[in-house]
Write a structure and sequence with these properties.
The protein is α+β, with helices and mostly antiparallel strands. The protein has helices spanning 3-15, 68-78, 126-144, 162-165, 168-171, 183-192, 235-244, 262-273, 280-303, 311-315, 319-330, and strands at 22-29, 37-44, 47-54, 90-92, 102-106, 111-112, 200-203, 212-214, 220-223, 230-233. Strands 1-2-3-5-4 form a 5-stranded antiparallel β-sheet. Strands 6-8-9 form a 3-stranded antiparallel β-sheet, covered by helices on one side. A two-stranded antiparallel ribbon has the order 7-10. It is globular.
Length: 331
């Protein structure tokens, strides 16, 4: 949606929700959301408010990750916890305002945790990083312990085997398939060793530093970006952030910034979860397997001009290390 059109739609929307005079003073496209998340400010008789609105991607069916009300279900469930998150102010599937479902939360001030050499996170001390990690992993453990009866909207749990085989069609479309030569072996090992009696609950789906929103003094302000949320194996979230923080999973000629080590992350999570954490390496291997395939798919989309993003040329260098790391973890 063009910003001018969105501003025109936001004015009557806000007039219906505020008393007195209302003016939209700013509308911007937020970074990292492919053009369907926006920040806007509203001047009214009592002052000015800043909001974040999320809409579905254009020209898609409003199901799965494009169903923004899935995120609303989880965020509402978190209102009864002390998990840092954005509480939903307004949401709905009424089409009169934006022509699609929507939700609105406060526009946070701060930034996600950035750890590159030029980023603000690189100036944090080891003690600050450890404390931030403690807050993040404690928040994750609390998410995983929320009663799933509160989020019936999310549907049935994702079967473990489905979370392995659903990547088959993306593997077939990946660029540089030689980098993924060991994928069939990893796939079979994952299926042969599916954990039994594993914890099931709400999962975030993309739990990594890019979705940990921090205040200016490096405190966790919110877990953000819940579009991949669902019910299923909660330890997938732990495996995901461990993989993104595992130097052995990434190409050494193109180093990437890492958070705390996987062992520390698992330990911090275990302290907060207070329960059994079986087969952690399986979830770490699954995460590495997934992201190797995702990298190959996105590299293909980039090179074919379908979704141009030069960063995938560098990320793709880690496709083979990710798959090899998965094999090692499953050994």
């Amino acid at each position: 949606m063009e910003l001018s059109e969105l501003e025109q739609r936001l004015l009557p929307f806000c007039q219906a929700r505020y008393r007195g005079s209302v003016k939209i003073t700013e509308v911007i496209t937020m970074p990292g959301h492919a053009g369907f998340a926006y920040g806007f400010k509203v001047a009214h008789d009592q002052g000015e408010d800043a909001w974040f609105i999320r809409l579905p991607p254009p020209n898609v069916n409003w199901v799965g990750t494009a169903d923004v009300l899935r995120q609303v279900a989880v965020l509402n469930a978190l209102d009864g916890t002390d998990v840092p998150h954005c509480s939903v102010r307004w949401s709905g599937d009424d089409l009169e305002w934006f022509g699609c479902p929507y939700f609105v939360v406060p526009w946070l001030q701060g930034d996600v945790l950035r750890l590159g050499p030029e980023d603000w996170g690189s100036s944090l001390t080891d003690a600050q990083l450890l404390e931030f990690g403690r807050q993040a992993m404690s928040a994750l453990a609390k998410v995983h312990q929320v009663d799933t009866a509160q989020v019936s909207y999310l549907g049935d749990p994702v079967p473990f085997a489905d979370d392995v085989v659903r990547w088959d069609r993306f593997y077939e479309k990946a660029a540089e398939p030689q980098r993924l030569a060991a994928v069939p072996e990893v796939r079979q090992r994952l299926l042969d060793t599916i954990p039994a009696n594993a914890p099931v609950g709400i999962f975030h789906g993309d739990f990594q530093t890019a979705n940990l929103f921090a205040t200016a003094d490096a405190q966790l302000a919110a877990l953000i970006d819940w579009e991949l949320t669902g019910i299923g194996a909660t330890l997938n979230d732990l495996g995901w952030i461990c993989t993104f923080s595992d130097p052995l999973a990434w190409d050494r000629t193109a180093p990437r910034p890492h958070f705390l080590t996987p062992d520390i992350l698992v330990d911090l999570y275990a302290q907060a979860y207070a329960g059994e954490l079986p087969d952690i390496n399986w979830y770490r291997a699954l995460a590495a397997y997934k992201f190797a395939i995702i990298s190959g798919l996105n590299l293909s989309l980039h090179r074919r001009g379908k979704r141009v993003d030069e960063t995938w040329e560098t990320t793709a260098l880690s496709m083979q290390p990710l798959v090899e790391r998965a094999l090692n973890l499953l050994a």
